[in-house]
Amino acid sequence: MKNIIFISFSLISSFVYTQKKYSLDYALEFELKNNLKVNKLEYYYNSKDNGTRLCLLEGDSLKYEMIFAGGENIRIRSSMKKNDFLKATFIENTCDLISKYQYPYEKKLKKYTSVNLRDTLIDGVSYYHYQMKHIKMKKKYKTVHFIVDKNSPDCMPFFYNDLFQEIWKKNRTVPNGLPFIIFHKNFKGEITYKMQLKKAYKIEKFFLIPEDCLRNK
After folding, report:
1. How far is it, in rounded angstroms, from Cα 101 to Cα 76?
2. CA 185, CA 194: separation in Å to the nearest integer?
3. What is the structure's pLDDT at 150?
4. What is the value of pTM for the model shown?
5. Residue 122, pLDDT above cutoff 80
6. φ, ψ at 91 (rounded to 5°)
7. ∠ at Cα 185 (184, 188), nearest 5°?
8. Radius of gyration for the chain, computed over Cα atoms and rounded to the nearest angstrom
9. 7 in Cβ contact with 88 (< 8 Å)
10. How would residue 151 be classed by pLDDT, with cut points 50, 70 and 90?
11. Contacts (Cβ under 8 Å, ≥6 apart) of 1
C-alpha cells in the first residue's frame, strides 16, 4: 500500500477548504477471534453517517495498513506511520490513492434480510440483538449476529461491510447503538468468528479528498 500524507492538528491551510471532507467521530477497538487466533482489530466510523468508516490493520510495529470507505463508493487503500496517524486530525489523500468501488448490491439484496431478535442478557446487562442472514439457509451461508449497546442511541448501527449497510438502508428497522459483540454462526449453529468490543471512544479525524479527484473518477 502507498504511504499517505497527513496534516497535523496545528496545521490548517487554505487548501483544506477545497477538499471533500469525511468525518470520523468514534474509534472502536475489538478483540477478534477467528480460527482459534486472537487479534486486535480497529475501526473508526462516523456515528451519524455509517457509510464512512476506516479499518486499521497492523502492517508492522511502525505503521497501519488502512482501508477507508466513504461516500460516492470511494475506497482508499494506503499505509501510514502509527505516530503520524495518531497525531493527525486531518489526513490528506492524493488522487492516485483513490478508487471507485462498485458492489453488486441488487442481486444480493434480494437474498439477504435483517431480523430483530429478543434482547440478550450478558453479565446482567441487557443488549439489543439482531442478525443478518441469507433467506435460504444452506451449508455455505453464515448468519451474522449483532449484540448492541442500548446506551448509545444516537449512534447509527456499525457495519463492517457494504452489504449489511445496504440491507439496513432498505428499511432501517435494526436498533441504533454501538456494537458490543459481532459473531458469525455456521449452519450447525457454531460460532466461527467473533469481534468483541474492548474500547469505544470519541475522536475527531477527517479524511480529505481533492474535489478534482472525485470529478475525474
Report:
1. 10
2. 9
3. 97
4. 0.86
5. yes
6. -120, 115
7. 165
8. 18
9. yes
10. very high
11. 59, 65, 66, 77, 78, 79
